[in-house]
Amino acid sequence: MPNDRNQDVAVVGSPSTNTELTVDLLQEATEERLVGALTAFEAVQDGHPITCVGQIVGIELKNRWHEDSVFRNLVKRTGEIPPITNRQDTRTAGLVVGATFRQTTNGYEPDVLGMVPPTGTRVYRVDQDLLDRLLSVYQSEIVYLGRAYANDVFYPMWFKHFGSGAGGAGEAYHLGVFGKTGSGKSGLAKMMLCAYARHPQMGILIIDPQGEFSDELSGVRRGHQGLALDEVVRNLGRPIQRYRIVDLQLDTWDLFQELLIVRRFIQDHLDVRGADNIPLAAEYIREGLQRAGTTLPHLASLDALRAALNIVSQRANRIYTGQARAAQLQDRVNTILNSELDTTFENGWRPIADLFRSGQGRRTLFGIVRDLIQSEGAGQPRPVVVIDISEEGNPGLWAEEIERRVMTRLLNVLIIQSAQRSRRQEGANVLVMIDEAARHAPSGRIDAGSEADVLRKVLRNAVRETRKYGLGWFFISQTLGGLDNELLQQLRILVFGFGLAMGSEFDRLRDFVGGDKRALELYQSFRDPQSFPRRDLQEFPFMAVGPVSPLAFSGKPLFFTAFTDSQEFLRVNGLEPVSHDGT
Question: 12-21, 77-86, 411-420, 434-443 — which is least confidently predicted?
């Protein structure tokens, strides 16, 4: 198919509305792949020429003679009726209008289609030249993540920062990318991250429970995409800050108490056993040290360990109700104090206490947030910060409760600082990306008061309240049904990959596209990316809803196929590194 010119494929038919047109396919287009194709037509509205762009979302074939019972019997015997079969076929398609542009002396301006073009109006395929002309005003803001579904043209999108001025949306909004494993959602999220990284005035925080983004931003490639994420971010002038839990200066007694259990200080060094006794011993140590005036940064001392051991010895009768077992615990404490103090300090106490100590290479959560929300007048690009809370990245330290407590504390600090900035009439202009979001804010029942419940409440309040602070949230999840519904309802831009076309997942999907039957049928036609015989033939189709494209003014779902070649993504978006000779 030639793509150096527009090609007529249909004419406007009946019935049609100003949002969805019925179009009759031309004979020469009946053998083309048109479902999902980006098409356009021209008309006159209020005395001005307009160009409307939309996607074909479904095709229907009719032959009224073949629907007659007499002719059906003939077809049953002969297989065809020469004067009728094929020649009397009519094919109609549904064309959903996505955007309208009014031609003026200054070029093209966005408009709204408030009329219906007459029957016979020519509908043609959109080529790249036409798109470039229509969107010339927005060219500096446009990003391409792939091609229009069933087209060779690049589908234009925009990802604006949350501040005012050039390239800014003037407000924050929340996003979500959903799809089963292998649908390409992680690759798409990385390209979207690159799109946001083009804005140096926007801080980006990535909560990484799998370690994938942490590895990518440190130069270790994951998957088959091959996108050099760290190089792209640095070439855009953005500093990268990567932290594991061990790199953070933790600052709450709750975390200290949890670590005494997770790092097995209570079990292995004090020889405390029992599901109820272990957390009780940790609680007594925490309370006793707090009452004694010990501060978290000064835990890494022999005096703090002695104080903790004396607390355990004094509370032995409360940790164990049995006199014999309490006496054994006191003997164990005396042994440590008399002959094993240094060994216990180095192997058991210090690895925990050091997490709360200040020092070179250690960052407080307040310091990380301060980097993300630096003053607009600082003149320096804000960093891309990734917090690796994965088990692989934190061996010997990781536990779900630790992960949740660190996340809760970090997000609370970020929200409080953003609110304070908002009171000074300054937006935070920060995007928070959370991978595997359903792990942190699952749907369904959670034990009230648990750390999981606390974290989910923080995220619920955040998506409801922080938009006005200039703080946006980007959730990545394999499931719609598994993510808390309150979070889903606050998302403004949603992108759906393959694998959500069954059961409750499909019911949720139907709600987000407003019950648009044609769009849902097109989504259901997506082919599993893993079913292609060769990797070079793979396609990663997506359906998007929301203000993600200058061609999506109507609010209807749009369809595109993501890039599979990372070099093409970089080249098309001008993100290739520039060498010293300027090439």
Answer: 77-86
| Separation of alpha carbons 80 and 42, rounded Å | 39
Task: Return the higher-pLDDT residue of 7 and 188.
Answer: 188
CB of 197 closer than 8 Å to CB of 204? yes
- Phi and psi, residue 188, nearest 5°: -65, -40
Residues 433/205, Cβ–Cβ less than 8 Å: yes
Decide: helix, strand or coil at residue 274: coil
Banded pLDDT at 3 (limits 50, 70, 90): very low
CATH architecture of 160-239+381-547: 3-Layer(aba) Sandwich (3.40)
CA distances from 234 to 212, 242, 252, 381, 461 (A): 18, 13, 33, 11, 33
The domain locations on the chain are 8-148, 160-239+381-547, 249-356
- What is the enclosing helix (H) or strand (E) of 452? helix 451-465
Would the pTM count as exceeding 0.85? yes
Residues β-bridged to residue 94: 22, 58
Q: What is the pLDDT of residues 144-158, one digit of tens each?
A: 999 998 788 999 999
